[in-house]
Amino acid sequence: MKRNYNKVVITLFLNIIIFFPFFVKAEVNYQLLGLGDSITTGYGITDFNNIYINIFKNYLEEYYQSIIILNNEANNGLTSTQLLNKIKNDIDLKNKIKKADIIVMSIGGNDYLNEIIYYQNPEIFIDIGNQLLANLKDIYNNIFSLNESVILIVIPLYNPYLSLLKNNQELIEMYDKTKKEMIEQINQYRVINNKQIYTSDTLSKEIESSNNLNYGIDPHPNINGHKLIAEECIKIFNEKIVTNNNSNQNKIITFIIKNKYYFIVIGIIFLAYLFKKGYNKARKW
């Protein structure tokens, strides 16, 4: 009788070991980090849930069926030079980059802000564009040196100042050139360095619509604009990240996470069945 009881205990122990990874996977937390300027802070959006990064977070929670820890480290008015300095020197930010699974970043608009509003000098426009692209490359290098496996989604540069630049076609073309080069730089960086860095080829034009921006000279996206940005982040996630990473192992893990409660119930029922079966055998002895 004692020998059979020991068999029951051992059986239960082995099954707990087998099912324990399922429980652990079900409780995995993912970390989403926001970097950059006031687009990512959600400047002008009164409802926290309407900011694009929060819409994206909610989608990821639904996809992974798990808690997404959001750290939004974006700052209003931040330029690419300031962001680069923060990443290099801010110890707390470095640690958050190291822990992040996904980073979303918006940067570059403030580099042009003063020049567009006050001066509109073509030569300075060229210098700003060149410096921005150089800073972006350094930003990418620093992020991936801290976390080589992180997924980085970059919100492309868009032009909210078309009304201010309507009489200066030369500057509009220069700005558009930088927008295009920024996208090309990201695509090249991904291929050359084999890193998970992505952006949208179409978002710039879509968000420049008056329906997606605030009125007047306010350069920030409105609620419609934030929804558009979130939709593009979700599209990038589904079309590029999920597709690229969906090995057979990842498919199994994703299936387990999405159906974790079914596995828990099945595991409990199975363990109860084994216990009862073992107990009945022990009684016969």
Mind explaining what this structure looks like?
The protein is α/β, with parallel strands linked by helices. The chain has a single domain, classed as 3-Layer(aba) Sandwich (Rossmann fold), CATH 3.40.50. It has helices at 2-26, 38-41, 52-64, 80-89, 91-99, 109-119, 122-146, 169-193, 203-207, 223-245, 248-258, 260-284; strands at 30-36, 68-72, 102-106, 151-155, 197-199. It has a five-stranded parallel beta sheet with strand order 2-1-3-4-5, sandwiched between helices. Helix 8 (169-193) links the parallel strand 4 and strand 5 (197-199). The chain is elongated and about 90 Å long. The N and C termini lie close together (5 Å).
Summarize the structure.
Helix content is 65%, strand content 9%.
What's the helical proportion of residues? 55-70%
Spatial extent as radius of gyration: 25 Å
Largest sheet: 5 strands, parallel
Would you tell me which CATH topology applies? Rossmann fold
When the domains are counted, the total is 1
Question: In sequence order, what are the helices and strands, one letter per element?
Answer: HEHHEHHEHHEHEHHHH
What is the mean predicted local confidence, pLDDT?
84
Secondary-structure-derived class? alpha/beta
Total of helices: 12
> Per CATH, which architecture?
3-Layer(aba) Sandwich
CATH class identity = Alpha Beta
Oligomer: single chain
CATH superfamily: SGNH hydrolase
